[in-house]
Amino acid sequence: MAIILIVEDEMFIRQSAEWTMEDLGHTILLASDLASALLHLSGTKQIDALFVDIRLKTLTFGGYDVANQAIRLQPGLRVLYTSGSSLSAEMTELFVGGGQFIQKPYSPAQLEHSIGELFH
Predict the structure, then answer these.
(1) DSSP state, 80?
(2) 3-class secondary-structure state, position 67
(3) What whole-number distance in Å separates Cα of residue 44 and Cα of residue 61?
(4) pTM for this structure?
(5) CA angle, 37 as apex, 18 and 39 as ends, to 5°?
(6) Which architecture, in CATH terms, is 3-100?
(7) Please, are residues 22 and 29 in contact by the beta-carbon 8 Å criterion?
(8) Which of 89, 19, 90, 40 is nearest to 61 (CA)?
(9) 4-aspartylphosphate is carried by which residues (predicted)?
(10) pLDDT 10s per residue in the chain (120 long)?
(11) Which residues of the chain form beta strands (DSSP E)?
């Protein structure tokens, strides 16, 4: 199973994603902002995937900032983006790390499917 860093500023959504991914057998690391995400990413532990909200309130480019810095620290990282907004061409142009997307609200089954796709 994978080590997945979830970066989401809304506690309930972060917790729900954590529980779903833990039920799938993944090891989960949590962050609510860029600073706490960077602490995880700069550690010695290899992280397999980043699950990040595109619209983090404290950052100009939100989850894109997190993903870009994450890829610099851990180049093989896979990235699954999420947002309550519909996916647009402008959004996908900024994707890194394989750049897959799941729209909020998502069900546990949809999240499970997206995580599976991320690793295939």
Answers:
(1) E
(2) helix
(3) 26
(4) 0.94
(5) 120
(6) 3-Layer(aba) Sandwich (3.40)
(7) no
(8) 90
(9) 53
(10) 899 999 999 999 999 999 999 999 999 999 999 899 999 999 878 999 999 999 887 666 688 999 999 999 999 999 999 999 898 888 888 899 888 999 999 999 999 999 999 998
(11) 3-7, 27-31, 49-53, 78-83, 100-103
Letter for the amino acid at 35? A
| Domain boundaries of the chain, sorted by first residue | 3-100
Please give the structure tokens belonging to residue 73. Answer: 């620290």
Q: Residue 23 burial by CB count (10 A; 0-12/13-18/19+): exposed, middle or buried?
A: exposed
CB 52 within 8 A of CB 36: no
Tokens at 68, concatenated: 């870009």
Neighbours of 110 (CB within 10 A): 13
At 103, the amino acid letter reads Q
The encoded tokens of residue 36 equal 């706490």
**Integer Cα distance of 61 and 12 in angstroms:** 22
Q: Which amino acid is at 116?
A: G
